[in-house]
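Review form for a predicted model. The reviewer records the input and the model, then writes brief findings.
Reviewer: anonymous (R2)
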Amino acid sequence: MSCLHDITSPSSATIAQVIPLDRLASELLRILNLFLSFSLSADLSIAAAVLSLLSLVLMVLGSICITMALSRGVEYLLKPASLFFILAGTTVLICMAVFQRAVRWLIESNHSIPVEYEYSWSVACASAAGAILIFGGGCFILLSLPALPKKPWEYCLNKGTST
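Model under review:
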């Protein structure tokens, strides 16, 4: 059975059922490694700039969704906001990986003087910002979940006996 058949079928299959998560993760890492190994220094600088702008756009979209959810009481915008913040944090971390690759390429090239280097506090701040964005997105996902009953075990027992 092909994945195309699974995706186009009218059944209510989730992405985890159609594509195994370990295969999806390995494909994403393969694409990221291909992207990072293919680029040169100038391309890496452009890629880092594009990723940082994409991250800023995602942060703005997440902020707009949160503002609408808080000011207008539109609860369903919390899930897109969480998605925007998680993607923004991920792009910040990927941008940091691209930046580190560009620095390593510059140091290993023949055009530079051999120098010892270490990353500054700004790299730690950017990495922390990416982690905080991902954590905030996770918190917004938890806020957007429906409330559990006061006694969840009674809810499960009642649901089990009604069938």
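Findings: DSSP finds seven helices and no strands in the chain.
Further findings: Residues 1-16 have pLDDT under 50 and may be disordered.
Recommendation: see findings above.
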